[in-house]
Design a protein that fits this description.
About 45% of the residues lie in helices and about 15% in strands. It is an alpha/beta fold and about 150 residues long. Strand 1, helix 1 and strand 2 form a beta-alpha-beta unit.
Length: about 150
């Protein structure tokens, strides 16, 4: 049985969705099953409407069915949806690996608020642009230690 990961992170811009796809693709190549919310939520989005209740329910089910949450915690302030997903996963006992690539270093753990950094079982920090391969390697190393 493969490890099932829920990849939490911002997904509102093309750049964010592209990054999530690259990261998910790298993890999938390493043999992990990746639940990518932007893929899962697509069935609730059309040109005519967005079913926010459906997106919410789908994401909660994804977290509950995951063995691990990999949470992208980039930004001056972490994406609010990602913060919620971390809190939900923590409350359900799903381990969280915090990931940060952001060059801003304020806060307790490489720029992350103490509530988020302390709910993460492990933390991965790869401060660089377009080094997805190195980031995937670092995440896989942590996953193998769990």
């Amino acid at each position: 049985m493969s490890t099932r990961l829920y990849l939490a992170g911002p997904l509102f811009t093309g750049a964010e969705r592209d990054w999530n796809e690259r990261l998910a693709g790298g993890l999938r190549k390493e043999g992990f099953e990746v639940i990518l919310p932007q893929e899962e939520a697509s069935k609730h989005i059309s040109s005519a409407s967005i079913d926010f209740a459906g997106i919410f329910a789908t994401c909660l089910e994804g977290i509950r069915s995951a063995n691990v949450v990999v949470a992208v915690l980039d930004g001056a302030d972490v994406d609010s949806g990602t913060a919620f997903e971390c809190g939900y996963a923590y409350s359900k006992g799903v381990p969280i690996i915090g990931v940060r690539t952001d060059l801003r270093l304020g806060g307790e753990e490489k720029g992350v608020n103490a509530m988020l950094s302390r709910c993460c079982q492990q933390f991965v920090y790869v401060p660089a642009f377009n080094r997805c391969g190195e980031l995937v390697d670092s995440i896989v190393s942590v996953l193998r230690e769990l």
